Amino acid sequence: MENLILFLYPFSWLVALASFTPQIIRLMRTKSAANDISLVSWSMFQCNAILGWSYTVLVVGDPMLMVTSSLVLTANVLMLGTLIYKRMKYREPRQPVMVNWLLSEALY
């Protein structure tokens, strides 16, 4: 069993990247603010990725795990960055409160 794990372990980064790829592609293709994707959840995933990467680099020191956690961190940054970009790009323009008040007063 140990030999099997030692054989499969170097491929863990492929699984990590494969798990993020569909979400990232879907988000990049969307033409909306992607409100159906939770910004809070992905921010928490990002915090978890930062902690995991820090622990791997500063405490464990395993080079293969460093590569895997670095890829997970990069995928999280890409996902969160793209989500924030989409939210900014497709946000609904808001008028200042004073403009709304003036428009409502002018209509009556």
- How many separate helices? 5
Structural class: mainly alpha
Low-confidence stretches: none
| Gross geometry | elongated
Tell me the span between the first and last alpha carbons: 79 Å
Major beta-sheet overview: none
Approximate strand percentage: under 5%
| Radius of gyration using CA atoms only | 21 Å
The secondary-structure element order is HHHHH
Q: What percent of the residues sit in helical stretches (DSSP H or I)? A: over 70%
Mean pLDDT: 83
Beta strand count:
0
Outline the structure in words.
- It is a single chain.
- This protein has 5 helices and no strands.
- It is mostly helical and 108 residues long.
- Helix 3 packs antiparallel against helix 4 (63-89).
- It is elongated.
- 9% of the residues are buried.
- The model has no long low-confidence stretch (mean pLDDT 83).
Question: What distinguishing features does this structure have?
Answer:
single chain; 108 residues; mainly alpha; elongated
